[in-house]
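[recover] target loaded
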């Protein structure tokens, strides 16, 4: 009996010596979308729906819903959602001018744009769903070096590789200035969320899970940032993406 008590005490001490992954409540457990759920070409928004931070069916999303979902899931400053939502809601099919369905964001050159990191260009058909070949080309930049993390420089180079390929293969390539800005910001955001707000350094497996599954890798050890990810953080990260893209 004494031996058992000592063993249990040792295990308890050992467990307390290491930080444990943030517990996931049942309310925000990952659930893959159903056939009739609405999803967008944006893996971040799809992730929010898959975890129930916004409506799991992806329908009738308001600005307040989106802001609350981003804050609760990744600690994103609410003001960051205002611009994208105000653009996306112009294509709303909900019958209201203050809500949208995630699928509404598929309209080409509104929110969806050429040179997605993980989706085909609209010219090739399916710009909605994750594409293995596209992602393989983007992620080869860090995979070929056997890196375990994705730096902001590697993310920028991955986007550059994707851009070069699209320019050659898409005869209707048309990356608008708004699409260019969105692509740079999206690159900065995924590295900041999966890594840190200064250098990125996001774990490769976390990044893979996020893009492939639209899932937050809680089970693999990822945790929500303790500090708010602000518009200033993203502006600084985006500036680094631009710098490493030159």
């Amino acid at each position: 009996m004494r031996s058992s008590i000592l063993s249990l005490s040792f295990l308890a001490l050992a467990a307390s010596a290491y930080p444990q992954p943030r517990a996931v409540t049942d309310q925000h457990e990952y659930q893959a979308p159903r056939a009739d759920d609405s999803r967008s070409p944006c893996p971040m928004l799809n992730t929010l729906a898959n975890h129930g931070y916004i409506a799991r069916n992806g329908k009738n999303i308001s600005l307040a819903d989106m802001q609350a979902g981003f804050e609760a899931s990744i600690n994103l400053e609410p003001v960051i959602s205002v611009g994208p939502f105000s653009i996306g809601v112009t294509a709303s099919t909900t019958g209201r001018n203050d809500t949208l369905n995630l699928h509404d964001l598929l309209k080409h050159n509104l929110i969806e744009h050429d040179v997605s990191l993980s989706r085909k260009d609209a010219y090739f058909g399916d710009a909605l769903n994750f594409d293995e070949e596209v992602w393989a080309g983007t992620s080869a930049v860090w995979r070929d070096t056997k890196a375990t993390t994705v730096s902001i420089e590697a993310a920028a180079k991955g986007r550059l590789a994707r851009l070069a390929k699209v320019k050659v293969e898409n005869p209707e390539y048309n990356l608008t200035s708004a699409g260019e800005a969105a692509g740079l910001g999206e690159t900065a955001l995924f590295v900041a969320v999966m890594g840190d707000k200064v250098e990125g350094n996001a774990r490769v497996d976390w990044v893979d899970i996020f893009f492939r599954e639209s899932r937050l890798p809680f089970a693999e050890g990822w945790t929500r940032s303790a500090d708010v990810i602000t518009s200033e953080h993203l502006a600084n990260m985006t500036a680094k993406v631009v710098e490493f893209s030159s």
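[recover] notes: The two ends are 67 Å apart (CA to CA).
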